[in-house]
Amino acid sequence: MNDFSTRPAADEAAEYYFKYINAVADGDILATLDQQRHDTVALLQSVSESRAGYRYEPEKWSIKELVGHINDSERLFASRALWFARSLPGALPSFDQEIAVKAAGSDELTLAALTHEFDAVRGATLDLFRNLGSEAWSRDGIASDYRFTVRALAWIIAGHVIHHSRVLRERYLG
């Protein structure tokens, strides 16, 4: 079995992140990320621009803010994976999603622009993971005071999108 088809072990990420890792089906994570790219773009393209500002509760993110959060989180997890894959020293800081969403200004963008951004970010994520040597997948580091392997970060990226796609379907579009 290759390194990108091996499900992360319990010690490869903080327990919290296994809600994302466990949402991903067994198999080749690269194939999963690639298929998810197409599926997510299709899902987002099915939402009208007039619906994109919708919030299912007043204090919840809009659809556009949700997509902006997905994009920011993928960049963050992929940058952590790059840092650890390259054996760079030092712990990485935490990420406050609420601060990031407020500062991003996603509601000022079109959903089409955010969807295009997701596609581009996912393409870069796939290039990063496809070009890793087999030894890089088990490299690790500290982020948000927790140990992560590169492999776990790939699975977290996929699971994070699964989670938010479910939220989008159930709470925003359902």
Topology:
Layout: H1 18-21, H2 29-45, H3 63-85, H4 97-104, H5 111-130, E1 140-143, E2 146-149, H6 150-173
Antiparallel strand pairs: 1-2
Helix pairs in contact: 2-5, 2-6, 3-4, 3-5, 3-6
Count of alpha and pi helical runs: 6
Shape: globular
Order of helices and strands: HHHHHEEH
Report the β-strand fraction as a percent range.
under 5%
Largest sheet: 2 strands, antiparallel
Which spans of ≥5 residues are poorly predicted at pLDDT below 50? none
Mean pLDDT figure: 97
Quaternary organisation of the protein chains: single chain
- Give the full name of the CATH homologous superfamily: dinb family like domain
State the end-to-end distance: 39 Å
Count of domain modules: 1
Q: Give the structural class.
A: mainly alpha
Would you summarize the structure shown here?
Helix content is 55%, strand content 5%. The chain is mainly alpha-helical.
